[in-house]
Amino acid sequence: MDPIRNPYAPGAGQRPPELAGRDEQLRTFEVVLERIARGRPERSIVLTGLRGVGKTVLLNALRGAAVRAGWGSGKFEARPEQGLRRPMSAALHVAVRELGHPVPDEVDQVLGVIKAFAQRDAPANAKLREKWQPGIDAPAQTGRADSGDIEIDLVELLTDVGGLAADVGKGVAVFIDEMQDLGPADISALCAACHEISQNGLPVIVVGAGLPHLPALLSASKSYSERLFRYTRIDRLDRDAAEVALQSPARDEDSEWGREALDAMYAATGGYPYFIQAYGKVAWDVAPRSPITVEDVTVAGPEAEEELGVGFFGSRFERATPGEREYLRAMADVAAEMFAAGEELDETESVPTAAVATHLGRKPQSLSPARDGLLKKGLIFSGERGRIAFTVPHFGKYLRNSA
Fold first, then answer.
1. What span, in angstroms and rounded, lies between the C-alpha atoms of 224 and 329?
2. In this protein, which residues make up the domain named Cytochrome c (predicted)?
3. Which stretches of 69-183 are DSSP H helices?
4. Of 171, 212, 179, 167, nearest to 88 (Cα)?
5. What is the pTM of this model?
6. What is the C-alpha separation between 383 and 107, in angstroms, rounded?
7. For the segment 257-312, what is each residue's pLDDT rounded down to a tens digit?
């Protein structure tokens, strides 16, 4: 098989050649865009799922739909060490420019509000040279989105941006990846702002993507967040969608997969989009001819697993401290013990924190620093009180095989 024509694309956030299994989410979003544009009430959207299920890819596809609908859009990735003001300002700056409002003075006024919102990231007594400059030519507006209270300021900012969009019969969509990494104050402000713009019927929508515990973080911030967002869980592909993800790109290159090869691929990848692309790329390269056979998949397996072990699993494991790695390995061992005892485990291998402490012969309180560090790094999450789980599918298997 010609490696130059290999259609598979294993990369972080890289769109696969065939976005299989996400038609429902794309159709629903197009309806949301149209309803908001017509002044109908709609909720902002939160996508949740494990790593490797394609949340970022879907987020980018939804942004593409917003652009095609003529909306202004902006996107940023939340980071634990960064506040909301700078990335939100940059995203809205792009969105306002995309709107194409015909009155320059009104555009400059809103850009001035965005600038004031961004500059408030610095202390009130900071000198001009110490304030972050967002690259907006318009002068900063005084008395709007610059109070220093992030909740008040974000409400005012999105209200002004929404008004500008309404003038031209369009909308604004802000896309936030890794949304669980926003700080508590920023999450609270975002919920309050979404609530306000929804009540006022403004054409602004926030689309966030994050790990499975993101809904719990939003609910802990504002009780009404359970009704504020449309929550959509992004999961692994079913057997039919996984086949489309492999077969359709191959046929575009005048090749195909054998039936047994597709069965073997689903067994190896579990239907996770990232794994499908990783295994698919290697299987294509090792296959001597079309159709790709089950023997080709078998030969490709070790190389694909080695690549995942270095890039997908290993890179995450290396980010952990020695104490955190010990905690991760203990989680994997406890999950194996639970499975051997007849308990069913899902792909996250959720285990009791008390069992991890018992396995290590430590008091649970002494393991809090390691657990909290892994939570902040996004390597584990707590789906329910007293339990902990991997954010990366098959991570427990990787740890046990590499022990």
1. 38
2. 166-332
3. 85-99, 104-119, 150-167
4. 179
5. 0.91
6. 44
7. 999 999 999 999 999 999 999 999 999 999 999 999 999 999 999 999 999 998 89
